[in-house]
């Protein structure tokens, strides 16, 4: 999955979703890959998680740049556009 993906988007889900999200996000933090991870925050589902992450930044447990590597949006089209804008552009043939 990691090699074939350009980015990662988590939708509301359970513990497996969180495991996979944090794994790919950790890979970015460790420099094992340079792909964005994102949350599609449907109906505020991830609000408590976002608050936790922002507190982790405030308490210096999470660096600001690592937090910025996780995009969050409530609109799928807007989130995909943001991800697309952040992806490296392919060379034109």
SSE blueprint and pairings:
Layout: E1 8-10, H1 15-30, E2 37-40, H2 47-58, H3 64-68, E3 70-73, H4 76-86
Key descriptive features of the protein:
single chain; 93 residues; alpha/beta; Rossmann fold; 3 strands; globular
Radius of gyration: 14 Å
Main sheet record: 3 strands, parallel
**CATH arch. level architecture:** 3-Layer(aba) Sandwich
User: How do the strands of the widest beta sheet line up side by side?
Assistant: 1-2-3
* Average pLDDT number: 90
Alpha plus pi helix count: 4
Proportion of beta-strand residues: 5-15%
Distance between the termini: 27 Å
Low-confidence stretches: none
Global geometry: globular
* Overall domain count: 1
Order of helices and strands: EHEHHEH
Number of strands: 3
Top-tier CATH class: Alpha Beta
Oligomer: single chain
């Amino acid at each position: 999955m990691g090699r074939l993906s350009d980015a990662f988007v988590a939708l509301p889900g359970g513990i497996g979703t969180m495991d996979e999200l944090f794994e790919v996000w950790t890979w970015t933090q460790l420099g094992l890959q340079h792909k964005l991870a994102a949350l599609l925050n449907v109906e505020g589902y991830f609000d408590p998680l976002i608050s936790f992450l922002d507190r982790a930044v405030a308490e210096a447990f999470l660096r600001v740049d690592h937090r910025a590597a996780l995009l969050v949006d409530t609109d799928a089209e807007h989130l995909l556009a943001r991800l697309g804008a952040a992806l490296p552009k392919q060379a034109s043939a």
